[in-house]
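Can you give me the bound-state structure? Components:
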Amino acid sequence: MAEVTLSSFIVLGVALFMLLNSAAIAVYAERRVAAFIQNRMGPNRVGPAGLLQPIADVLKLLLKEDVTPTEGNKFIHAVAPMIPVITALMTVAVIPFGEGLYATNINASVLYLLAVASLGVYGVTLAGWASNSKYSLLGGLRAAAQMISYELPLGMAVASVVIFVGSLRVVDIAAYQETWWFFFLNPLGAIIFIIAAFAESNRTPFDLVEAEQELVGGFHTEYSSMKFGMFFLAEYMHVVINSMLMTTFFFGAYHLPFAGYWLPELSPLVKGILDVSVFTIKTGFFMFLFIWVRWTIPRFKYNQVMKLGWSRLLPLSIANFIVIAAILFFIVN
Amino acid sequence: MFEQYLPIFVLLGVAFVLALAFMALSRFLGPYRPNTVKLKPYESGMDPVGQAKDRYSIAFYLVAMEFIVFDLEVVFLYPWAVRFLDMGTGTFVAMTVFIVILFIGLIYTLKKGTLDWDMKNFKYEALKK
Amino acid sequence: MDTFIFIFLAVLTIGSGLGMVLNRNTVNSALFLVLNMVSIAGIYLLLQAQFLALIQILVYAGAIMVLFLFVIMLLNLDDERSLFSKVRAKYISAFFLGVVTLSLILYSLEGVADLLPEISPEMETAGTVEALGDVLYTDYLFAFEMTAILLTAAVVGALMIAQYKKSNNGASE
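Here's the bound-state model for the whole set.
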């Protein structure tokens, strides 16, 4: 049981800084990749190759007027955008970025991740409710129903990883994958997790929340200025966070593939640099996957989303869990 | 044990301050010139018809209800998943029974069509709102 | 320090509970209840019951309160205007400042710190997931299986209440 020292707080600070930055980079990357896929230029004027575009976007949002609809609940309308940002930031505390590079190692950190994620539902629900607009309310309800529906396959997929490790510490789960990534041991769980993570972060093909044709802007129809900016920021932070979680739970965290077999003993500094860069590259790949899917696959209808969640993914994830448990219990053990 | 939770509380404080700072910045930097039309809820450029607070489909409630049940199942799975390799076959059977009972509940719900949001398949009037 | 945190959380729990009961706006009540759940989770953490604290947030604040909010939004109980009673930032800050002040006053009272029981050193291990898993599926197996039946009954019951059969000619509304 590692103690919390000054270095934990340094890791925490750096992780927080990197998360905020990578959210900005994700915004930029999304627009560049979209432009590339659609065969156009994309943002290229602000700074070299348009790299300062996110800063310009934030400045623009800050200078906009903040409008709260009449008869809306002003206080809740202001609190709602803060919730997804806070829950997204809270996640980094338990993710290991390298061997020994984590802020804290609490006893049930997997549950901590799920608990924080489950509180994110309040952001959309309250935003929809406080706006006093039909589009917002319906969008918020839809988003909340979708998010809670996909939380179950997500939790099940994580549980099917936990049975291998026998520990609810994310750090242990990451360390266990030194030789075999869970993607190889539990491919179905990995696929379920990826699908559920897409739905959790409300990204295409599950972006019913902002189905423009039917709901205008969904729960943030009535939001403007930085309040909207925070929902926007939170969406991209969730993309980054979910990429990190995919990497940590199924794609070997900070380990190279089958590293236990061939990677020689390295000095702590080299190992640390290697770990962090491997983690970053994997996270970057999954961020790219999020963007790639968004500009490739059309959106589902709402009934299809619910059907996929409840009558496909949930039974599948339960079956996957119990089969893996049986194999481990009767054959391996 | 408490020191382990310290980074989390520090992070909560930092995240809260950060979120608050964003809100405050936009409040100070942005203009504020409200008028009645601007503050109306958006409804595709028309005057809003009726109130937003209407009654919505009961299906949302059923989804939330179903979610609680399976959320509890997931929560019960975790301590078992951590310890089951060290315990006897009896525990394994017990968990299988637990999952099967809840699975029957899920199949019942799916057969009843509660979680089927396809309009043409709606069997029940109450879901048709 | 522990004593002060406990008193603060206790006052916060009672305060948010009162706020929930006395508030006339249903959504505000629900939000107070969320605060209540979270502060109870804090008290669990203070007792070193780490697993229980996280479960409290995950299940009560994350699942059950979402159901409550849904129901409040769906039912739309009374007329629209009263649903938007004024919640202002100043009331909220007044609430929190009041909680802090009251807990400081309680803390400064002589002898309050001695009233609190000592936390047993066994809690260090008893509050973890592993310890819970060891007893839950052996000593409390019956209660565990009963939970499954209770949950299934809850789903079926909710379904029976929520649905009623469509009339044959299909024109009931």
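A couple of observations. Chain C has nine helices and no strands. Chain C touches chain A at residues 27, 31, 34, 50-51, 54-55, 57-58, 61-63, 66, 69-70, 73, 80-81, 84, 86-89, 92, 127-129 (CB under 8 Å).
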